[in-house]
Amino acid sequence: MKIQLCYASTRNNESEDLLQDLNDILTVARDFNSRNEICGVLYYADGSFFQCLQGSEHVVKQLFESICKDKRHHQIIGFDTTEIAETNFKDWSMKYVQRNSEINKFFKKMNFKIFSPAQLDENSLPIFLNHLYDADQTNIKPQRVGMNNRGVNKYL
Ligand SMILES: Cc1cc2nc3c(=O)[nH]c(=O)nc-3n(C[C@H](O)[C@H](O)[C@H](O)COP(=O)(O)O)c2cc1C
Domains in the chain, please, with CATH? Predict the structure, then answer.
């Protein structure tokens, strides 16, 4: 049985190198997920993560347990797990999407002052997922240009 599992969480260590963190997470995720037929999408903004994982029930649930123990985030709030016939993110072992104008419009309409994915509900979650599906994938490049610029990216 294939399932979809989505959760929201809060990033730890705001002062650390965000781009390096995202790059590390995506490297491990893409390697493990592609070997285990898991796919999905990760979104980060305003100190919060949103992730959708799709794949075989036991693999996704086991992975989620390990993600929950990860010290890079906390306050993990899972949405209802749903059974799915097809994995619609199958082109991406883990797609990464950065904030864009369509997503900004969507959150503005929802009256979100900042990105707070825990406030998504059963109506808004599928719409957000559609935006993430349609969005272009963002490539993360950690910047190694001295201490002052570590992880600074005005779009994140
Ligand atoms: C927000 C976030 C999302 C993550 N997504 C994945 C993922 O999709 N796949 C994956 O294998 N690891 C993911 N990780 C990393 C795992 O939490 C963990 O580091 C990895 O499974 C290795 O665990 P281990 O050191 O216990 O083997 C994610 C971590 C964070 C903080």
Answer: 2-134 (3.30.70.100)
